[in-house]
Amino acid sequence: MKVFYILALFLGLGTSALAQNAAKLPDWRDIKRTLPPEWYGSEQAASIADTLIKYQMTCGGWIKNQNWSGKIKYDEIYNAQHSGFGATIDNGATVSELKFLAQVYACTKRSEVKEAFMKGLNYLMAMQYANGGFPQVYPAQPKSNGKAHYSAHITYNDNAIYHVLRLFKNICDDKEPYKSLEIDRKTKDKLKKQFDKGIACILKCQIKVDGKPSVWCQQHDEKTLAPIGARSYELASLTGAGETVYIIRLLMSIKKPSKEVIYSIECAIDWLKSHAIKDAEVEYFKNSDGMNDCRLKTAKGAPLLWARFYDLETGQPYVCDRDGVKKNDLSEIGYERRNGYRWYGRSPQMVLDNYDKWKKELGK
Fold first, then answer.
1. Are residues 253 and 322 in the same domain?
2. What 8-state DSSP symbol labels residue 308?
3. pTM of the full predicted structure?
4. Residue 253 is part of which domain span?
5. Into how many domains does the chain fold?
6. Which position among 21, 67, 91, 339 bears the catalytic label?
7. For each successive 10 residues of the chain (364 residues), what is the average pLDDT?
8. Which of 100, 225, 252, 331 is most buried when burial is the number of CB atoms within 10 A of its CB?
9. Which residue in the list 67, 110, 231, 354 is annotated as catalytic?
10. 131 in catalytic set
11. Domain boundary among 204, 237, 263
12. 91 in active site
């Protein structure tokens, strides 16, 4: 408690004021999902905007997994500010804060809100690699034993790059709430070029199987663009239920796609169709110890299912524990990872359902 109190004082806050303010404000996750546009002109929204401005890192971004309207992790902010580690785009960080600030500015026209937004936008623009990719963290985390941290890899994991490029596109397309910021033409032109570079990088990263483009890995090497692993259970692989879906959605959102973009989408769709798992579903149940558990079971006629990871060599789905050893079945890995990661999902069905509509709009 003493450490928390000292951190609170360091950050310019009183603990009682923090508790009172947190009780009045809606949860940060609910704000992002459900509150109407007019709410962003409220005193509550202004209070949260002030918090975002206060804890914006010097580089312009924010750290991840913060509840800016509730229990802020002050020790993590303190460590980030004094460790030299950069801000991040992981788990929606920085992009979510920028969207919030844009919504507040649309209602209030507060100059300090726009200044913070532009500082954050410039951060995202600065973090892009020359090849068009984006790292998870910028500035880069220090090397360990001469080896770069996995956060330096081009990061599609958890849709990090998808969120950044979609933000760039929405600003260039004058979509609200970004239109209200009246961003200058020079900046928009630069954003358009960086968006195009990001798309070009995506096409180059698309993994070829037997000479044909397929899907993407969660991470790709920032220099060679080859698929590469991250955490011990996130091996270099082909992704099905997860990152590939949002990359396809981003490519489909391009109004006048090039032949290369169209071919990329068609190949990715073909791969998803051929790697769907039929007649199966994830079952959640109470195990013999009375704990919530899960397993993959046969379910005749169940909607199509996809694995998160497919082996680069065999194309077969697999799961993995923290030991980094591939297994064929959920029962073969430990309880913690079995239930602490989304190994299967149905999200690819979303792009399969939109595929015919997308082709029709192209006139194909």
1. yes
2. S
3. 0.91
4. 206-364
5. 2
6. 91
7. 42 44 70 86 96 95 93 86 84 97 98 99 98 95 79 97 99 97 98 99 98 98 98 97 97 97 99 98 97 98 99 98 98 98 98 96 83
8. 100
9. 231
10. no
11. 204
12. yes
